[in-house]
Design a protein that fits this description.
about 400 residues, globular, single chain, binds thymidine-5'-triphosphate, binds magnesium ion, Dna Ligase, domain 1, Alpha-Beta Plaits, 3 domains, 12 strands, DNA polymerase, domain 1, alpha+beta, disordered C terminus
Length: about 400
């Protein structure tokens, strides 16, 4: 494996959700801000750097976080706002290089190999990315630069927050020698314990045993461990494939069996899905309704339309029809809408009339124009607003 030729950048935003809140609400700056589910079963999504000295971290039960930092500011978070900022950050990266792989809502890899001739040294590119993100969003990020994805990701974590760590190829053996085994991807608490039994706590110690030793011990996993411990990884930076479906779902703060409440959520989700489809200039033929009951049983129902659609009203009417046909024997915990089976837009006249009326299309256009100008929350169809003042949804954040 030859990893010396590539220059890989990994970028990860600092305390992402909490930092966005601190930018949008300046009164929160410098304060411990904790984002997550605020109900009894809620967990922490993230905490600002001011909250971290109290021991608060992602995935911790919210009740524990409240005990650790009673004066903290606890917020349920605004997923769509974070997704919007995430898209804008990815656009800044794509401006520098087309080879950008979005790894999660706040992290991405870039392959800068060959970019240096055009854009200057990789470290300068990294600094200019950090500057642009800060100037446009007042947000800081941390970047790792290394000969492969694995090392770049480790690098971005080393000097957080607002870090920039370069791991040159020549320094890799020394860097790996002292790196704790727990930093290796796929090495969880169990593997760490088994390695400790062998007297191994650093990657350097793994490398003291031969490839044959690790293969005999743990097979394929042992082989992967051996190469990773030497800082070798030939994973490619793969720009995301085009979406095959577009969806939105929400977990309710309180389970409900009330169809009208569910339909109001379906309207907001249809709005979101329709807007996304129009933005990416795609239309889909299959509309799917997803319902998760309070015992976690999940049911999906779908309908294939005669014509592909990107129209909010068509999506909404279809999922409402599917809901009407569904028996709600138990309370519902989550509902979701998705559209799939994308088809290219056709300019020639269709044999079938559009299922959405000109009035629906005009309404979609008006909503899109206003949200493009003022953000996604600027205009939400009336029914959604009346629901939101009654019952905010629990955020469901996944990385
Ligand atoms: P991370 O990058 O893991 O965390 P972070 O950006 O908040 O903090 P750091 O400076 O250490 O990178 O995750 C990015 C966002 O993803 C985070 O702000 C909230 C969300 N998230 C969850 O919702 N649940 C989780 O368990 C984790 C780890 C993250
Ligand atoms: Mg982050």
């Amino acid at each position: 494996m030859n990893t010396a030729q590539r220059i890989i950048l990994h970028l990860d935003m600092d305390a992402f959700f909490a930092s966005v809140e601190q930018v949008d609400q300046p009164s929160l700056r410098g304060k411990p801000v904790i984002i997550g589910g605020l109900s009894d079963r809620g967990v922490v999504s993230t905490a600002s750097y001011e909250a971290r000295p109290y021991g608060i971290h992602s995935a911790m039960p919210m009740a524990t976080a409240r005990n650790l930092c009673p004066h903290g500011i606890f917020l349920s978070g605004r997923r769509r706002r974070y997704a919007q900022i995430s898209r804008q950050i990815m656009a800044i990266l794509q401006d520098c290089s087309p080879v950008v792989e979005k790894a999660s809502i706040d992290e991405a890899y870039m392959d800068l190999t060959g970019c240096e001739r055009l854009l200057g040294p990789a470290e300068d590119i990294a600094r200019s990315i950090k500057d642009r993100i800060f100037h446009q969003h007042e947000l800081t990020c941390s970047i790792g630069l290394a000969p492969n994805k694995f090392l770049a990701k480790i690098g971005s974590d080393l000097d957080k927050p607002d870090g920039l760590r370069v791991i040159p190829p020549a320094s890799v053996p020394e860097f790996m020698a002292s790196l704790p085994v727990s930093k290796l991807p796929g090495v969880g608490a169990k593997t760490v314990a088994r390695l400790h039994e062998l007297g191994i706590s650093t990657c350097g110690q793994i490398s003291q045993f031969s490839l044959e030793f690790w293969e005999a011990k743990w097979g394929k996993r042992g082989r992967a461990l051996f190469y990773l411990a030497q800082g070798q990884d030939d994973g490619q930076v793969v720009p995301r494939r085009k979406a095959k479906s577009c969806g939105a779902e929400d977990t309710f703060a309180r389970d409900t069996a009330d169809r009208e409440t569910i339909k109001t959520w379906l309207l907001e989700q249809s709005e979101e899905v329709g807007r996304s489809l129009r933005k990416i200039k795609s239309r889909g033929r299959t509309v799917t309704l997803k319902i998760k009951f309070n015992d976690f049983q999940t049911v999906t129902r779908n309908r294939t339309l005669a014509q592909p659609t990107d129209c909010t009203q068509v999506i909404y009417r279809t999922v409402c029809g599917l809901l009407d046909e569904m028996r709600l024997s138990k309370s519902v915990r989550l509902c979701g809408v998705s559209v799939s089976q994308f088809q290219a837009r056709q300019s020639q006249l269709s044999l079938f009339p559009e299922q959405n009326s000109p009035r629906d299309r005009n309404l979609d256009q008006a909503v899109d124009t206003i949200t493009a100008k003022f953000g996604n929350r600027a205009l939400v169809r009336g029914a959604v607003l009346s629901l939101q003042t009654r019952e905010p949804s629990e955020p469901k954040e996944t990385k």
